[in-house]
């Protein structure tokens, strides 16, 4: 924003960079449509985490669960909406930085199709995945913000031709997936007819249709024992390309300034600085193959349903060893939209075990308006059918 230093979650970054001389187009669009900016929020250091903890500025308090992480990297943006401090907020999502905090804070979060919203004026993390997303507490405002930021005056209204429930992904979840799946199926059946609901194993489909993943699967990565092998491989490909692009963008600054990085962040950034261009072309092939495969599966008006995350929000200051298992499982789900470039919305479903839970819907690249409309149409019925206690 013009006149403000963009801090990137890091005091050292803020100290070594001047105030912006212009405002990002995504922010300008919102302001010109009548929004008022009431604050700028805390985020994960250098956007490099999905936890939302910041050792320098403090961790924004999760309004649904104060002893749990708020999710990140757009932690402050999600907390401000969840706590009722603002009507909506903007954030960025590369690996999951809008979807995860939306899920953990019990609100709606929208990651748009890759490249449909200008990222001019956004500090890049990894351009192959960076998007500008947003948060809201209800689907009406979520869609209203989307119509402005996506520059879609008349959002496309269409009935879904199919809603594919990714059964293998719901089996990964530590939350009773059957309750979510049954409620989702009943809601869609009630509104659009039972023929729309279908079930699939996305892991098997991805393994068959994305041949470039083979080199990642064959590595026998230890994290795959907790996971669906093809989606673990997808996550590996995404994170490899993300590390490489982070190094190209910020490696020189990190090496020169040597910032004091928080726990967890320091290790991730050290890994990124060691990245090479080996397999980078394979990663880009994976991106293209997955987009083509999922486009063929869903068609113009198909929707894929998955858990946003596989479990409840971790407690604050969870040991790194625990997160080492948690993170790969989370990224295996988050990488489906990340690698394909599809749009994804995280929808709050109330609380299970007194902690917020959610479900996600994905639609093909460019179908953002359709997905926003669908959420608005579906939400009340879904809320009635799922049966978790309302937040």
UniProtKB/TrEMBL annotation:
Organism per entry: Ficus carica
Designated name of the protein: Amidase domain-containing protein
GO molecular function, one term: hydrolase activity, acting on carbon-nitrogen (but not peptide) bonds, in linear amides
Domain Amidase span(s) in chain numbering: 2-138
Pfam family name, one: Amidase
InterPro entries: Amidase_CS, Amidase_dom, AS_sf
Family: Belongs to the amidase family.
Record PROSITE patterns: AMIDASES
Matching PANTHER family: AMIDASE 1 (PTHR46310:SF7)
